[in-house]
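Repro:
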Amino acid sequence: MDFEKVYVRYFQVIYRFLLSLSTDEHLSEELAQEAFMKAMKNAGQFEGRCAPETWLCAIAKNCYFDHQRAQKHRFQGDMPDIAAPSFEEALEDKETRLLIHQALHELPEPYKEVFTLRVFGDLSYAQIGALFGKSETWGRVTYYRAKVKLRETLKEDDNATQ
């Protein structure tokens, strides 16, 4: 694997994915660099069962979550209005996006990861399924269940604050 070509081809994809997770340009660039370093170190583990960007997104996601665990900080705030027609529309509002991220943090795996990969990483259901060694249908169903669980979490938190 020619990492210079891989880096040039996929850096912006990985950077935008991390930016969607962190909303911090500098952190996203730093984590993208770290993800490519880890990918280069572990190139022998890439088996080609998924697209390179899917593999790199998984590494980047782990770098982001490692960073989050190291920071051990949580944001506080009001829960969003769950009457929004869709998560995609709700994510356009910066405050609502933060509140959804807070609720997303509480979701169990694999729902949290599948939702993050689909909404923030723009991965297809097939790519998500491949990342987990599952089918495209599994990716679709898991994403749907993640949305349902996230809505329930947001509704519970909203009811608790009233």
